[in-house]
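Technical annex, item 7. During the second reporting period the consortium partners agreed on a shared format for inverse folding records so that results from different sites could be compared directly. Each record opens with the tokenized structure and is followed by the designed sequence. A conforming record, contributed by the partner at site C, is shown below for reference.
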């Protein structure tokens, strides 16, 4: 029987490890990272500072070499088939780097030339409009504000219409309105079939945009799931209240505190009873108590806290809290 050809993954990471060595010390920045991103996915790569996100993206973009493992883009290996892989990728780097002597349009034409594309002004105009940079086309790169430079990095990454778009903190320092413009534009490209890999510390962005998410902690994948599944995780309910008083130590260790607002995870009904009893015992009088659905930030903080061994699965909840919400 003829076998059906299987379409290659948009991005494939297989057992990717990276060890940095400096001054005799070794740092394992990535530890056997393995996952695939399917064509057309909007995929989030999340993790705290230093988790290894940029290292993984640098290896994908051919800017750094893995110590071991394999990475490919739509079937092209990033080491043995570098030119093909690079052409299929548009990478928005985390660091702002520019040639200060070009204007915006010149830089985009130059970048097109790098990929052997001539007469690209139609698409360049579309990119500038989509990213709110049309009136800056003739401006020198030095004259752009920080947020405009970051949008320019996005335009540069997309100039050769890559099927796979990689964004490393694209909205750091970009104002709210332009963040929305940027997301509309990227979401539009995704609807037309582009694959998107995004890292961000704005978890509400990841929650809104990404269909699937990988979480990295100290170089290891500790979660790899659909966003909706992550949000339904065991302790995906929280107790929220306001207080000016200090929390008892046991609760403080698991609380997420924003000013006067305290949030505590509620894995099950027993935890709710226990928490309320602990608050009462500590003489604390919480105001505006409510039980609500945890957001991605709660799940993220939970996972990061509870993942000493990245390979251990979390236990199922004793009793779901659905009735209480
Ligand atoms: N060139 C390098 N030499 C040595 N160590 C490095 C190098 N680049 C990164 N590291 C280390 O590797 C680890 C992962 O760094 P990386 O930049 O990948 O993290 P990140 O997840 O992108 O963090 P952030 O959210 O802060 O951008 C960190 O401990 C960092 O100090
Ligand atoms: Mg980074």
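Designed sequence (site C submission):
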């Amino acid at each position: 029987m003829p076998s059906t050809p299987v379409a290659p993954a948009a991005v494939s990471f297989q057992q990717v490890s990276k060890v940095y060595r400096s001054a005799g010390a070794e740092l394992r920045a990535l530890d056997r990272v393995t996952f695939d991103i399917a064509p057309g996915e909007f995929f989030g790569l999340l993790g705290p500072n230093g988790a290894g996100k940029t290292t993984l993206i640098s290896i994908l973009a051919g800017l750094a070499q893995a110590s071991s493992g394999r990475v490919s883009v739509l079937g092209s290996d990033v080491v043995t088939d570098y030119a093909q892989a690079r052409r299929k990728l548009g990478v928005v780097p985390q660091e702002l780097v520019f040639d200060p002597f070009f204007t915006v349009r010149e830089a985009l034409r130059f970048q097109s030339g790098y990929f052997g594309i001539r007469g690209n002004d139609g698409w360049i105009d579309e990119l500038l409009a989509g990213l709110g940079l049309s009136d800056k086309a003739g401006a020198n790169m030095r004259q752009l504000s920080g947020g405009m430079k970051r949008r320019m990095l996005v335009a540069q990454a997309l100039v050769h219409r890559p099927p796979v778009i990689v964004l490393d903190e694209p909205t750091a320092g970009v104002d709210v309105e332009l963040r929305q413009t940027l997301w509309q534009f990227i979401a539009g490209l995704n609807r037309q079939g582009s694959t998107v890999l995004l890292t961000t510390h704005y978890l509400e962005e990841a929650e809104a945009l990404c269909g699937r998410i990988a979480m990295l902690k100290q170089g290891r994948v500790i979660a790899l799931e659909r966003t909706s599944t992550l949000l339904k995780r065991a302790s995906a309910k929280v107790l929220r209240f306001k207080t000016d008083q200090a929390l008892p130590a046991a609760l403080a260790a698991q609380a997420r505190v924003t000013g006067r607002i305290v949030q505590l995870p509620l894995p099950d009904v027993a935890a709710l009873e226990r928490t309320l009893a602990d608050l009462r015992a500590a003489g604390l009088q919480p105001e505006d108590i409510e039980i609500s659905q945890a957001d991605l930030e709660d799940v993220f903080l939970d996972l990061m806290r509870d993942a000493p061994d990245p390979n251990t699965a979390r236990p199922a909840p004793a009793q779901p809290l659905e009735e209480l919400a």
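Residues 94 and 168 are 5 Å apart (CA to CA). The mean pLDDT is 88. All partners now use this format for quarterly exchanges.
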